[in-house]
Amino acid sequence: MHLLRGVVQHYDWGDQQFIPEFLSTEADARPWAELWFGTHRGGPSLVKNATGSQPLEQLTGDLSFLVKIIAANKPLSLQTHPTDEQAASGFQQENEIGISLDAPQRIYRDASAKPELLIALTSFDAICGFRSIEESLELCKRFGWVQLAEHLESDGLAECVRWALTTGPHQLPAQMPAWAGRLASMYPGNGGVLVALLMHHVRLSPGQALFLGAGNAHAYLSGSGVEVMSSSDNVVRAAFTKKYVSVDEFLAVARFESIPSPVVDATEVIPGRFTYPVSTSRFGVERIEVAGETTVKATHHAEILVCTAGDATTIRRSQAWVLRNNESIQLNGTATVFRTWGTH
User: Fold this and answer.
1) Quick one: 282 and 236 in the same domain?
2) Rounded to whole angstroms, how far apart are CA atoms 176 and 184?
3) Do 100 and 191 fall into the same domain?
4) Is residue 19 part of a domain?
């Protein structure tokens, strides 16, 4: 059992207060977007040892999963993630044409899919997945989105999205929900706003989650949460960002099919312990609501425990520990602890 030290990422959409307060660190006016726990080369964690610290990878090997605390004050990019096959092909092609792994225009930075689960710690707003054409046409009629309705009805969902993203600037509708109006004010004329109007807008309560499989189009809008994902950095962006955008690749990777409500609710398997059903074997997540005494025993090669609230004596808010297979930790107090693991 080893104490972990995470790595902070300062992206421009980050919140200035949430992560500094979480870490009991003085805010410095920078945006603190993410706090990483894992072995990903973009922010490898350290573990405490008798003489100081060492890279987590030396203890566990390269982990297949990554855990983040995320705090969004501004919208993130409209994006999607590839399948394993798409990632492997894209990674090879970009290697062959000589694009550096760190180049801004690099899309495929590894050969892996990037399924991910976002669990809200605060109220969390996002757009995620496409509604059915019928549902979207009904909203178009209600709000007077005439041009969007015409393209959607005549061309279908995929071609409507292509029109929105490859033409413009657009005259965006005057009457929109507040969340879409915020996007329009930040990105005037951007066709990504029209795409967003065809997607589910969700507001998660703390403890609720979104699972984002390959091809799921999405954008986080605001809020804080825990993210658990495959240790990959393959993001295909289409709008709402200063980073590299590839509309053609987004259109090739995104899945243009309707999905029901994307919200994932936890299942209580035993009192105080909740699991999140996800359609991937790459990682797993358990939320432990500590109220008194309980024991957590690792049953995987390596597991990362992150405490997001309270104090359970051996682990308290903002702390993270790594447990190796068969190691255990005694928790005693009142706290919320996320237990996470991967295939390695």
Assistant:
1) no
2) 9
3) yes
4) no
Whole-model pTM above 0.90? yes
Residue-range definition of the domain harbouring residue 285: 267-342
Q: Do residues 222 and 81 lie in contact, with contact meaning Cβ atoms separated by under 8 Å?
A: no
> In this structure, what token pair is assigned to residue 310?
């309270």
179 and 311 co-located in one domain = no
% of residues, the chain, pLDDT over 70: 100
Q: Which residues contact 102 (CB under 8 A, 6 or more apart)?
A: none
pLDDT at 50: 82
pLDDT band at 49 (very low <50, low <70, confident <90, very high): confident
For residue 260, say if its preceding peptide bond is cis, omega within 30 degrees of 0.
no
Q: Are residues 85 and 213 in the same domain?
A: yes
CATH of the domain at 173: 2.60.120
Question: Which residue type is seen at 90?
Answer: G
Q: What is the pLDDT of residues 132-155, one digit of tens each?
A: 999 999 999 999 999 999 999 999
Q: By 3-state DSSP, what share of the chain in percent is helix, strand and coil, each rounded to 5?
A: 20, 35, 40
Helices (H), 176-311: 178-186, 191-196, 247-253
Cα R_g (the chain), whole angstroms: 21
The stretch 199-210 carries a mean pLDDT of: 97
Indicate whether 260 and 325 sit together in one domain: no
Question: How many angstroms separate the CA atoms of 79 and 247, rounded?
Answer: 10
